[in-house]
Amino acid sequence: MYICVVCGYDQLDYPQYEDGFAMQTICPCCGFQSGFDDASLEPFTIEEYRVKWIKLGSPLFSSSVSKPKGLN
Ligand SMILES: [Zn+2]
């Protein structure tokens, strides 16, 4: 299992980054996709994406996951 760099969700099946390459992994908790959200024309940094997500009320990207502990 791997930990999301944005929200701390610790049940990722695949790493978001490997050997410096973004793996296009989508976090089911915050919806961050490595290689996409951080590589678009106006890319988010990890910090910016986290702030944006929290401002939205930390919506869960997938209803099949529960929020990481300590994140409210
Ligand atoms: Zn996440």
Poorly predicted segments: none
Main beta-sheet annotation: 2 strands, antiparallel
Report the bound ligands by name, code or SMILES.
Answer: zinc ion
Total number of helices? 1
Shape assignment: globular
Order of helices and strands: EEH
Mean of the pLDDT scores? 92
Total DSSP E strands: 2
First CA to last CA: what distance? Answer: 22 Å
Find the structural class using helix and strand composition.
little secondary structure
Write up what this structure looks like.
With 72 residues, the protein is largely without helices or strands. The chain has one domain. 14% of the residues lie in helices and 6% in strands. The chain is built from one helix and two strands. The protein has one helix at 46-55, and strands at 17-18, 21-22. It has a two-stranded antiparallel sheet with strand order 1-2. Strand 1 (17-18) and strand 2 (21-22) form a beta hairpin. The mean pLDDT is 92. The site of zinc ion (ZN) has 8 residues, from loops. Zinc ion (ZN) binds at residues 4, 6-7, 9, 27, 29-30, 32.
Features:
single chain; little secondary structure; 1 helix; 6% strand; binds zinc ion
Task: Sum this structure up briefly.
The protein is 14% helix and 6% strand. The chain has one helix at residues 46-55; strands spanning 17-18, 21-22.
